[in-house]
């Protein structure tokens, strides 16, 4: 063990999975850092390694198990937490030597486990922690998690069994965190949860207080307040409940970004019912059209699953028709694969792998054409771009219509004088099916 005078010890940290998991990692790291622990980038320098796992799909489970294996091999002292941690038996079958296992959002327990391996020093160096906490995302954007868990029971998903029912954070605490982030230089807030539009349902939209004013714990009111902070506000994981209609005017007025990340997953009513998807019966196409009438700039990102059990050629065709009509901007597609413990595993009429592959190819071919055509329409337009990176060739940013890591980029060749976090007005000169090129005006 390598404790020094001004450090409680050294912790290695591996963070896997979705942005929600990243937020959990940030909370653990903030606490450890506040207690004087150093967070080190190599296994060899660490006194203990924490692996925050993901267990969403089989490939994520495998990636998590591999990461645990690597940490054990390179260091030997390993604490496991996160979604896969809910299945301790599965982990211990492969890696019996991990020191301890906890499930998702067990921040305090993980910190206590670290204490057991390396007791904290009595000089907790709290001043080393920036007031916004430790962020794994670059300083100019940050994820803002507004709730944990989910009240739905989609048949392909095991998140509720790992993370529990919806548990919304009080609105005052969310807004405090947002304000702290903004005060510390964050220019873009990415609102996340498992089910963002359901925010506050579990606490009956309780009225909280912020900035001396009563504010309801409801997405619309939250967005109105966030929209007053003078930064980009982007919404992820929004289901198309009727209440979403109230957010569109905020987008049209420029208060929050004209961007909605809605995981539709399918378009056939039969399949959506088999999936037990939330808001499955809302008239989606009609609503998208109405939203675009109010906010013509609205960008919609979505994900879909092809080859779900029971999906016939007719159902799949319905999905393709939906894509044609909906003209979504950014789309991800997954071939259905069973997740250990998910209800969908028991459904009849599982789809053959070759058929799944063929449908995936057809889906992607169609959507690529749509995405490319929609991006081509942006050539000649001016738009706001946030700079994510400055390299030798120029600056690389994202438009208001692109979220970090999942959407496209905007390349500003030669613009090396720009700074990360700058927001510039750019005229778009070229585009392919994913990225855009332009110059500041
Ligand atoms: S809405 Fe469905 S897919 Fe999303 S977390 Fe809840 S159960 Fe899982």
Descriptive notes:
There is one protein chain. Helices cover 31% and strands 23% of the residues. With 441 residues, the chain is an alpha/beta fold. The chain has 3 domains: 108 residues, Methylthiotransferase, N-terminal domain (Rossmann fold), CATH 3.40.50.12160; 237 residues, tm_1862 like domain (pyruvate-formate lyase- activating enzyme); 60 residues, Beta Barrel (OB fold (Dihydrolipoamide Acetyltransferase, E2P)). Helix 11 packs parallel to helix 12. The termini are far apart. The structure holds iron/sulfur cluster. Its EC number is 2.8.4.4. Keywords: 4Fe-4S, Cytoplasm, Iron, Iron-sulfur, Metal-binding, S-adenosyl-L-methionine, Transferase. This is Ribosomal protein uS12 methylthiotransferase RimO.
Q: Which spans have pLDDT < 50 for at least 5 consecutive residues?
A: 1-6, 122-127
- Kindly estimate the percentage of residues that lie in beta strands according to DSSP: 15-25%
Structural class: alpha/beta
Mass-distribution shape? globular
Mean pLDDT: 90
> Number of helical segments?
12
Query: Could you tell me which ligands this complex binds, including any ions or cofactors?
Result: iron/sulfur cluster
Radius of gyration: 23 Å
CATH homologous superfamily label of the largest domain: tm_1862 like domain
Q: Which architecture name of the largest domain does CATH use?
A: Alpha-Beta Horseshoe
End-to-end separation in angstroms reads 56 Å
Q: Quote the CATH topology of the largest domain.
A: pyruvate-formate lyase- activating enzyme
- Output the CATH class name of the largest domain: Alpha Beta
Strand arrangement within the widest β-sheet reads 2-1-3-4-5
Number of domains: 3
Percent helix: 25-40%
Largest sheet: 5 strands, parallel
